[in-house]
């Protein structure tokens, strides 16, 4: 029997689609190290919500796990940079950072080719 979809997953899907997942965390959702910088509240929330979407607990998101979230599902191929059919937390972070940079450029009215 499938677990019910947690409400926090909706927030993660929106955050991923809008590039709001913090790009600074250096650990996987299940890992912590004393050498890493302290996580922000946003990073902790993003990791928790990633785990909620990871229905089978394997540390990565499959197409089936994100299928109920159209924005996240639409971005799946772009986020899956190693083309293994899954999106890791690191891939989510990289995708979010790229998306934020593109949005910032668009808001500033500059295209990547405009920068010297």
Automatic annotation (TrEMBL):
InterPro entries per UniProt: EF-hand-dom_pair, EF_Hand_1_Ca_BS, EF_hand_dom
EF-hand domain: residues covered: 67-102
Signal sequence coordinates: 1-25
Any GO molecular function: calcium ion binding
Superkingdom field: Bacteria
Keywords: Signal
Pfam families hit by this protein: EF-hand_1, EF-hand_5
Name of the protein in its database record: EF-hand domain-containing protein
Native source species: Paenacidovorax monticola
């Amino acid at each position: 029997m499938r677990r019910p979809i947690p409400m926090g997953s909706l927030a993660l899907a929106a955050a991923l689609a809008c590039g709001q997942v913090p790009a600074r965390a250096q650990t996987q959702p299940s890992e912590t190290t004393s050498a890493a910088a302290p996580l922000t509240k946003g990073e902790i929330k993003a990791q928790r919500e990633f785990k909620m979407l990871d229905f089978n607990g394997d540390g990565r998101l499959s197409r089936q796990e994100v299928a109920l979230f159209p924005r996240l599902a639409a971005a799946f191929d772009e986020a899956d940079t190693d083309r293994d059919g899954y999106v890791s937390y690191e891939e989510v972070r990289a995708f979010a950072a790229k998306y934020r940079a593109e949005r910032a450029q668009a808001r500033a009215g500059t295209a990547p080719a405009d920068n010297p």
